[in-house]
Amino acid sequence: MGRRPSRPMGVFMIDVLPGGAQKQEAVSSSRSLHELDDSGLVARFLAGDKRAFTVLADRYHVRLMNFIYRTIGDRDRAEDLVQETFIRVYRHLHRFDQSKKFSTWAYTIASNLAKNELRNRSRNPLVLFQTIKKNWEADHRPLEWEDNTYRPDDLFRKRHLKELVEKAVAQLPEHHRVVFVLREMEGKTYEEISEITGVNLGTVKSRLNRARNNFAQLMAPLLD
Questions:
Q1: What is the pLDDT along the chain (224 residues), one digit of tens a residue?
Q2: Each residue of 124-156: b (16+ CB within 10 Å) or e?
Q3: Span 1-123 CATH architecture
Q4: CATH code linked to domain 134-224
Q5: Ranges of each domain in the chain
Q6: What gap in Å lies between CA 204 and CA 194, rounded to an integer?
């Protein structure tokens, strides 16, 4: 089955916004919405400028898509879940504590949806591991495999190493895999991971330490 194309965020907005929300509203400031930080966009949305949500969704779509995909391993399902994430953000943004980081809150919603997806598959672990796919996106993750020599065989080595990492990450337990992906591939701080996963800082560090050790053990035979 071919991969279905992702919908542009403009289409997403037409799908989920209430009927009257598609009308353009007057902008009280000449400053471009795209120049605002997350907090500014949230404030503008809550003040009635529905276009601010479109900018937020565009800003985080790729990042959340990559995070969910790396967690559950199914790109089509990840697209469904990222859309569900934005629907929940839209519906509950009025409850968001604006003293907190919007990105952490959005990742928390995405993480909960991804964990529920994995939990629903847990009756058949073989299915779970078979759905962990190849070809991670290179954007928005600090874990990079390139060196700066640019030799002709660099691309082959990079692809091969990505495949080995994929195999190892697929075998990590769910609660270890989530913190590993958030830290090593999304570059989240320990504090952000604690908020996203809902566990205390000590548990985050403990799980990450175990995940790294487990990952190293899993990688060793693959690199022989």
A1: 445 544 444 434 434 444 444 444 444 443 588 888 999 999 999 999 999 999 999 999 999 999 999 888 888 889 999 999 999 999 999 999 988 899 999 999 999 999 888 877 654 433 433 443 333 333 334 454 444 444 545 555 666 677 777 778 888 898 899 998 888 878 888 999 999 999 999 999 999 989 888 888 887 776 65
A2: eeeebeebbeeebeeeebeeeeeeeeeeeeeee
A3: Orthogonal Bundle (1.10)
A4: 1.10.10.10
A5: 1-123, 134-224
A6: 6
